Amino acid sequence: MMARKQILILLLFVLFILQGTVFFWLTPSSLQLQIYPNFVLVAIFFVSIYYHRHTGLVLGLIFGMLHDIVYYGEMIGTYSFAMGVSAYLLGLVFKAPRAPLPMMMTIVILGSLLFDSTLFGIYKVFRLNPTSYNWSLLHHMLPNLLVHFAFALAIYVPVRKQLELIAKYQRRKTAS
């Protein structure tokens, strides 16, 4: 069963690599400055809902910091904070080990908006973002939300099954 957890970490790392490399080849050049996909974030939302919010928090902090270091932006730690807090809050509010598809897609939409709004707020507080929230919502957050939604639809069944197996094994292990 430990192999399943290691495969999950490997999957997150592969998604991290894909979101920074392959996706930009597939994106039309006119949209490359608008869409910044975060496939790892979507997968971490699944972990927070189907497995445990603390695991989602830790994975969000780790992969967010990795994102901050590799794709250094204006500040170090913003993605780490936003991913960790978003994953934890969604796991806290929507804890549902058997969340159906419509509920999970709603969670992905809310989580994507929460993540992007948190980043917007942090950059606005430190005066690194001169745009308004409405402009950012229309030009960045909603296109990202659509990409996250489509990706969540694509991975829903396989990721849900794997996380349910990990959670089931963990419950059996603690019960015995």
Automatic annotation (TrEMBL):
The chain crosses the membrane at residues 7-27, 33-51, 56-73, 79-96, 103-126, 138-159. GO terms for biological process: regulation of cell shape. It is found in: Cell membrane. The keyword Signal does not apply. Keywords: Cell membrane, Cell shape, Membrane, Transmembrane, Transmembrane helix. InterPro entries: Cell_shape_determining_MreD. It is a multi-pass membrane protein. One of its GO terms (cellular component) is plasma membrane. It holds the Pfam family MreD. Belongs to the MreD family. NCBIfam families: shape_MreD (TIGR03426). This is Rod shape-determining protein MreD. It comes from Paenibacillus ihbetae. The lineage of its organism: Bacteria, Bacillati, Bacillota, Bacilli, Bacillales.
